[in-house]
């Protein structure tokens, strides 16, 4: 396992000296001092195969060998030293203990290292972006990270470690992706694409030759045959190479050495078990008179324990022969465990499932390039129309290194050219299959043992895929005639199909000199394999040799894009005579060992070859101009046919190789990449730190962190903020992994219309609809493609914010900088909307950055309120409609707010609109629902928890009228604006009743204070004006306007005396006593008391009118009146009228008979059975769907008084605690109220109930300016109440004789009901202002103009915190 080894004294391997010390030996077997056994029974000790490297080694673990000059087997076979943890492979073991080393015990449940990062942790900008993770990409990432550059590596495939690679046909088939143009000679050509785009094995069909490459972190190194073979000098001198290389081919040796130090190639050890396939190739070389050209080839397979050159713990080869599908024994020095692990250790960020599509120059004002990629993670592939349309991107400030392979890098460059990047016309030309030829020597006379096994017998190992080579590259007059022949293996995934394929393929060449006995043996071997399986030791398959030839083809292939898909055209793969010649050699080699030669299946069936080594496509120019190649000798991409290049746009993979190599290419690819990166570093004066790594703990943090070298203050601030967000996200991910928590995620696409207009400030549905309509008429479209991921299911289920993380893109051409990247955004699922009762929002809140560097903030919310009750159609509309506000960003220090849903509305408005989910996109979204977890049970639990939570919340809204009642809470929550009075007075009326008067001094000292008397309605108190649950209440507002505010709590309000059957007529005495107190105590000495302006609400207004009409309150005491909802002509709304006329017994009498004289608006679970039964019955009261709720106190208010508000105007805190603002009502008062509302006029007490709104009494109101207003949606009193009073006043007094010409005014407030005119969250801007204007006009004069003071209220408005 990867582990940290603290406090080890280390030194470089090159500093270790070999120690020649003899020790006793017995029976000819050399012994190490540590007593480790050897592989072969009775065999001889071998030296560890280590090559000079960068890795640290333990000086105390140096190894030495016993010397015996009389026995050559006791001599050190290789001049190598042991490093930290290094030791030779142990002896043979049983099958159960075969040396198969993975990172975990059980691949199905084990934890594997992950050096790539989730896409959620990507930065928007890096110094260098590396595309691909094969040899070229790995070199660039490692060296640039060591040079101190910030590095982002993008890999199309997934991260897989030894133990995760497929072993059988089923697993391998699931990892297959195919694409290209299927072009058999006997059928029309057809573009095909299928399988998992991020699958490990990518089959590319082409016309003339096919290719197989690998997707995954590590690229094709994960599945190649490990052969490290330098290109011969004659090939490097060919005219196709640039003069810097062809004239000085030896200069490449230093880069071959660099690559070898990292990859540590070595030959198959002489003292390891003999491999039948290697011995057979040796025999065949002799038969072909090529013995001198046969040798064991160097390969990047490890044959010892211990850390490799980069510090990753490795194991010796288990000789499984599974190289072509991925080695699970941890013995292969892929780029994953070398260059990439090194890059990770030096601070590079790597991201998988990122398919790069194209590159553009960065917009003006920025340096470098924008790299666009399709992210396949989070099941985004289900949105086929969006995956390659709504691309993510990352900014490369300095350089982009293309290492996606010959086909991948060429495809990217071709598409980049189509997207406007100026490139040479040679891009896509001169591709090659490296002259690869595959063949089989089927059913030979000898055992070959070339079928790979996941767990081979140590006594009968298969070996690495390729161990021997017949190297025929030298000695030809024409270097293009050179070639190599190598033996190979077939992985176990293909073994079951191999015999059928070899038996049925046409064109096989059988031995001609076989006798009857030979034919019988051959047929028996065929039957044995057919019935006993491919691993039957005497069967035909176990006697099959696999050949791979690398030669030279014509380099005339090219890559094009058809329907935006890459298509290979390997026309004239090559030199067909030469291909036939090479096939003839293989035929002779097979004939020599009694086998049947079978050509490459693709060649036999379709006339095509297949290569695992595609090269070219962005070839180096041989004359330094873009007229002969796509890149210069450094791999830098030309801008056209001249010598000019795109600075920092460098190809580092096989695409730059201009000709077939006639050898396995990865050594040359790596050397050329080392050369290109080295030249780039020297050009930009970068110093690559070559300090050796220690032993890497791949489960821990890297040993080095990147530190930014940018010093501009603005960039520093932005990077600091980005670092903080990344750290927060990273901590959440790590915590979830550490606690072994499951998670849940899905991907969503929404589209719609967003209008750019800074004037769209109001946050209401009408504003959004207006913006959307305008945007639609202007074709201002918008779309996002976002993945939602909760790494810890508990956070989204149990946290009150129900938060998950957003990653993806937002596209809106109207906004400069589109497309925008979305990183580490916040998604809240069914977040409690504190602005509206009974409402849950699905919110999307994130900063997004455009390609031009512009940063904006996106805030969107879906509203799921009571309107969805019992209506699936409304529920779908609510959950699929997003109201969007886009603002300029604010510094994090200023984005502070009490509610998560409010934060996104802060900042200057840029645009607004509406986005929706289309039905087909919703179906795709359902397909992306994915639980995460360490095992099946964890994933099942995650899915169950999420779906249970979602269903429970959905049903609680959909079935709101049927859910349990919401009873009053015992705690005070949401009291964000406690407004205690400056002073409170006890007031004694003329009849001895004691009430309360509260006073607040004005807060605006710049204005002369004036007295303002406010009268609340029945069953409430001063809190309707000084409401603590809204940010700015009426008392705050009028004190700010320079008024000394007085609010009475009268005898029919929230006082104990209210139970004494007082009426509105009695209450007038309280108002008189309060006015006397105000006039007496708040008049300057020696001056006459000034008349007081009065605001009266509902039944407080009715009671006040009785005092004025009967003369108890002198009219001269009153400066003016604002009457809220009613004054002297109360008329009940329809529903309240029905309570009077539709019941056989009046409601007040019925309740008095059943429950007594007092009806309380508060209730509780411990209330009487009658009251609890009444509570349940009240939920059935008819009302509009949008006004439904399950608050028991709200229901009781509605039953007694009528619905007192439009629910959407209250916030959650007010509605949830409505019982704290309401008391109760006596049946005596109810009787008077019902009678007055039915008859339409104010009355005195019974038994006569005399009408007070007589013409004579009304004349007493002369000279008092009166403003009448009512909510248009008032469900308590009809708007006719104020209309009738207005008509009576104007009929009686005319239009008035004041300076304005208007004495009496009436106003209807749209979208408001009754008490929400005072208690509504937005009343501060919808209601209070026109009341203040009237008061100012009357009290301070028509010329007076109120000036906004610089205070907290103004800050709240300007910050947007009050813009609900």
Set out the fold topology.
Layout: E1 10-12, E2 19-20, E3 56-58, E4 64-65, E5 125-131, H1 135-146, E6 151-154, H2 169-174, E7 176-182, E8 190-195, E9 201-205, E10 209-214, H3 233-236, H4 243-246, H5 253-263, H6 276-287, E11 294-296, E12 306-307, E13 313-314, H7 336-345, E14 349-351, E15 354-361, E16 369-375, H8 384-387, E17 392-402, H9 405-418, E18 437-442, E19 468-472, E20 483-488, H10 495-504, H11 516-532, E21 545-550, E22 558-562, E23 565-569, H12 576-591, E24 596-599, H13 601-606, E25 609-611, E26 636-638, E27 645-651, H14 666-683, H15 713-738, E28 743-756, H16 765-777, E29 781-790, H17 793-797, E30 803-811, E31 820-832, E32 840-850, E33 855-864, H18 872-880, E34 881-887, H19 900-903, E35 909-916, H20 919-928, E36 930-932, H21 936-958, E37 983-988, E38 994-1000, E39 1010-1015, H22 1034-1040, E40 1043-1049, H23 1064-1081, E41 1092-1097, H24 1098-1109, E42 1118-1124, H25 1134-1141, H26 1147-1155, E43 1158-1160, H27 1169-1178, H28 1192-1201, H29 1212-1216, E44 1224-1226, H30 1227-1239, H31 1255-1258, E45 1266-1271, H32 1280-1293, E46 1304-1309, H33 1316-1319, H34 1323-1326, ...
Parallel strand pairs: 2-4, 5-6, 5-17, 6-14, 7-9, 10-25, 17-27, 39-40, 39-41, 41-42, 42-45, 45-46
Antiparallel strand pairs: 1-3, 7-8, 9-10, 11-19, 12-13, 15-16, 16-17, 18-21, 18-24, 19-20, 20-21, 22-23, 26-27, 28-29, 28-35, 28-36, 29-30, 30-31, 31-32, 32-33, 33-34, 34-35, 37-38, 38-40, 43-44
Helix pairs in contact: 1-7, 1-14, 5-14, 23-24, 26-30
